[in-house]
Amino acid sequence: MDADGLAYVMYTSGSTGRPKGVAVPHRGVVRLARDIGDAGDTGLGPGEVFLQFAPISFDASTFEIWGDLLHGARLVLAPEGALALADLGEQIERHGVTTLWLTAGLFHLMVDHQLDRLRPVRRLLAGGDVLSPRQVERALRALPGTRLVNGYGPTENTTFTCCHPMALPDDVGRSVALGRPIAETRVHILDRGGRPVPVGASGELCTGGEGLARGYLNRPDLTAERFVPDPFAVLEGAGGRLYRTGDLARYRPDGRLDFLGRIDHQVKLRASASSRGRSRLACASIPGSWRRRWRSTSSRSGTCSWSPTWWATRCRTPPCATTCEPNCPSTWCRRRSSAWRRCRSLRTARWIAAACRP
After folding, report:
1. Is residue 165 within 8 Å of 123, Cβ to Cβ?
2. Is-contact 200 216, C-beta < 8 A?
3. Which of 67, 70, 203, 346 could form a disulfide linkage to 197, CB 3.0–4.6 angstroms apart?
């Protein structure tokens, strides 16, 4: 079996909202199972019990299945269908689960509502979105025997790119770090010109190494755009490429990475990536929502939601424009030459839309 042979195709939408198939080779799966499974922070082996909870179409299942079985640990399959938080907690207690992977959103919910059910877990991995420092600290205080790992990585680099293990609340800080690259993984923080940025400066996180996917299935144009030559690599072929993640990050002085946001308009809702543009189009199709602007908001826990905000639609004359007083702010919408630039201001536009609200 060729190490560069196709192992599977995992579909992800990313920032475009259009599904694209990520072609992952066998070497990527082996690198993930070997390097993460052998690591002291997430070490697997006989005596360990791993709950296979992620959907098979989600790349976390790759680590759950192969990382477990290739190290002789016991794999427990979660029951079919959606499980309530209490049901998940029951599965953990019934089977004595010692290693568990949860999405960031599910981790936050378990900490808030089923924290005691996590006590059997010795290695708790979470990721797929930003982890809340407050809830990470709470979990580490309540679970002194548990090592919590923030696992970061795009599907295009076979599940994990960086890991940040935490055992004490003091390990968290103001934000949860992405950590350091795992074995056989390269990470560069680059500016728009493809040059490395200094420590502490922000740039796009680009990654390469043995976990890199072959590209996007039947999408050579998109593959060439996102998988670019690695000017810093000595190896050729797959080792000579980098994947542009679209994530903004920076290096800390100690070598760990911080996540800062996105360079595009990608948002994550319940660990599923989408673009704001496509989400707005979907929201705009809702009857009666033409005067609403759907905006994403982030809570302190790092979760995102979409909420409607009344908005003056382009330069369309508002319903009250013919009846408003001369000094009513909504009449600014009729002055398209200069006033509309002011209408585009978030604060001003809210004022105008509020005056025009039916």
Report:
1. no
2. no
3. 203
Q: Per the structure block, which two tokens stand in for 319? A: 């319903």
User: Hey, how many other C-beta atoms are within 10 angstroms of the C-beta on 167?
Assistant: 14
Question: Rounded to whole angstroms, what are the CA distances from 168 to 100, 103, 131, 142, 334?
Answer: 18, 21, 16, 10, 59
**C-alpha to C-alpha distance for 230 and 211, rounded to whole angstroms:** 14
- Give the pLDDT confidence of 316-329 residue by residue, as tens digits: 434 443 334 444 44
DSSP state, residue 12: E
**Beta pairing, strands 123-127 & 99-103:** parallel
In this structure, are residues 320 and 328 in contact, taking their beta carbons and an 8 Å threshold? yes
**Pairing assessment for the beta strands 180-181 and 162-166 based on DSSP bridges:** antiparallel
Spans of the chain, pLDDT less than 50 = 236-238, 270-271, 289-358
- Given a contact cutoff of 8 angstroms between Cβ atoms, the answer to whether 210 and 184 are in contact is yes
DSSP 101-120: EEEHHHHHHHHHH-GGGGTT
pTM metric for this prediction: 0.75
What gap in Å lies between CA 90 and CA 213, rounded to an integer? 36
Please provide the DSSP assignment of 137-205 as one string: HHHHHH-TT-EEEEEE--GGGSS-SEEEEE-SGGGT-SS---BEE-TTEEEEEE-TTSPBPPTT--EEE
- Amino acid code (one letter) for 287: P
Do residues 355 and 325 lie in contact, with contact meaning Cβ atoms separated by under 8 Å? no
Contact criterion met (CB below 8 Å) for 206 and 187: yes
Annotate 209-251 with DSSP letters as a single string: ETT---EETT-HHHHHHHEEE-TT-SS-GGGGEEEEEEEEEEE
Domain boundaries, the chain: 6-264, 272-356
Beta-sheet pairing, 74-77 with 49-52 = parallel
